[in-house]
Amino acid sequence: MIVSYALKGKVGVITVDSAPVNALSHAVRSGIANALTTAATDHSMAVVIICAGRTFIAGADITEFGKPPQEPSLNQILEQLDNHPKLTLAAIHGTALGGGFETALSCNYRIALKSAKVGLPEVKLGLLPGAGGTQRVPRLAGLGPSINLMTTGNPIAASQAAEWSLVDRVVDGDLLTEAVAYAEQLVAEQAPQKQARNGQLILSDADRDAISQQRELMRKKTRGETAPQRILDCIEAAELDFDKGLDRERELFIACMQDPQSTAMRHMFFAERAAAKVDNLPKDTSLLNVARVGIIGAGTMGGGIAMCFAQAGIAVTLLDMSDDAVNAGIEKITKNYAISVKRGRLSEAQVGGIMANITPTSSYNDLADMDLVIEAVFENLAIKQDVFKTLDGICKPGAILASNTSYQSIDEIASVTSRPESVLGMHFFSPANVMKLLEVVRGAQSSDTIIATAMAVAKTIGKVPVLSGMCYGFIGNRMLRPYAREASLCLMEGATPAQIDGAMERWGMAMGPLAVGDLAGLDIGYKAREQLTDEQKGEPATYIVADRLVEAGRLGQKSGAGYYRYDPDTRQRVDDPQVMTIVESACQELGISRRVISDDEIVDRLILALANEGAKILEEGIAQRASDIDVVYCFGYGFPRFKGGPMHTIEAMGLERAVARINEFQSTLNPGNWQLATILAELAASGDSLVGYHRD
Ligand code: 3HC
Known about the structure:
N-(1-d-carboxylethyl)-l-norvaline Dehydrogenase, domain 2, 4 domains, eight-stranded mixed β-sheet, binds 3-hydroxybutanoyl-coenzyme A, alpha/beta, Rossmann fold, globular
């Protein structure tokens, strides 16, 4: 029974039992509405709403969004609660989120387990709390907590919620017993049927200033997103009469629901969860226990990876060639944590605990007992193969041997070992302790067990895993090449660095492509090109400017100049006429005449180049599903979540339009660069979905 109702003495208990997270589906809403109707006229003196399973109601059922509404609506249930003749009490465990927390806020009282959390995460879906949350929270908790809860979307602990008057009692022990006892006590004391709607919010001038400041902050922190500003509009409306405030909330909630940003962010919610799943994995695939992890290379990448595991409480052995090298790595990690302590993110004691999980070594023999070893050495096949030969001779049978390579063939790395079934790629993104994406790369012989284990380990260390097949650059970096190519070509054909980066950033990218190049270091690509033949390097127009910049000592941010000059104190980028001199002379050298390029052309060329390559990756079976590609870009490459990743973007644009534009580029630009992906042509013709595409 999804919702059941039973009397426990004089207390009516409504139990919601709808796995996995008790979301407010139509069945749950109907069940609660019926139970409330029964409780209104039976012998109960009070009503408790409690949930079975791992959590209290985690919100509206997101899978129902966009479908025709079915009564009773959540707001009808909350109205029923507002007018209920019996005292109502929500009993919270797990996470009471969104519409779930709003249901609790409409009860007269709230009791929560100490371990519980409450929150209003709607902003993460491009929405705002649409069931009275924006009006009830300010009346109960005041302005500051309301802004915090609703604009970050982050849940808070029950104890914090109690401090903010959002929860009345925090308990340990059996929640049902505690809730029934509390209800009985309230009835015995003839406690009033408190209602958040009767509270009042009065905004002082200082409060209004605080809202304006928050607006500015959100414009920077959540650039381009509409929901945070609408949330602040709703909070301001909490000063009005409650019903007028609710009307404003409804109006803005509908605006959010109809906003393509929310469609994109809801797509990302499900995409992130789908990405963790491996297609066609036999049900009986066992997982290996990963309790000890070895990391080879104590540089920036290896150190960052070590931090991820150590923070998750997993013992790490960090290896480098010499004691000096490994100690330098440990020092860097220590410095990183000192910054976290200074910023109040971690305590000294927590850092002490984390550092105790990391053991430095310069001896491979110390890796003999590791369950998983991740190699993070220089990006060179021969060096990596040497490392894997050594590991093969030392590591215990069954140990997972992973390479953090960005480009090299996992199969060629595995081929030097006697156990290719134990070898795979685990590609972290820099800085590894911050970036959420982890590409898990399956080699031709990688076993199901190690793939499933790597996907699970990723979640344990707080990463978002995406499975990739083998190709040069895997999913993310392979797609980056045509994107970067078009950026370079736009620069040669007529744009400036500031125009290209500005257009992409205004569109929503966290950072434009040339500024990213400066951040990463232009010398990296330069050195890589030195190993390539002219044919492998491709069109000179795609790299001539980068080469000239490096040759002029402009390596990017680290040398104070690249595509821009950088202020030594603020690191702010500044346009530099010298760069345009380099660009113009490169154009003369290659016989390219410059023209006016519009921002729209820049955005279309870069995004369509990215998505067209993504479609090829999909049709080759390198990515399992289109949404995985979106996860890669949003979690690893600064693609805005509110655009939903490159594949969602072209679906939203209309595949027919996208294909027409790619074909136009094919006829007006270098045709070799604009070979349309077959599935794009097919799906545009059939009208089927790209995001829903599944390769047979
Ligand atoms: N609706 C529908 N399905 C949901 C859901 C929801 N609100 N929340 C979670 N699910 C599904 C997930 O898609 C997943 O499905 P799958 O197993 O098929 O992939 C399953 O439940 C389990 O979810 P997680 O893998 O995320 O489980 P965790 O234990 O890691 O996390 C959670 C649980 C913290 C509840 C997390 O799922 C979560 O944050 N959910 C979203 C909560 C949310 O955003 N609520 C607000 C909804 S909007 C709203 O309420 C509007 C209102 O104001 C009117």
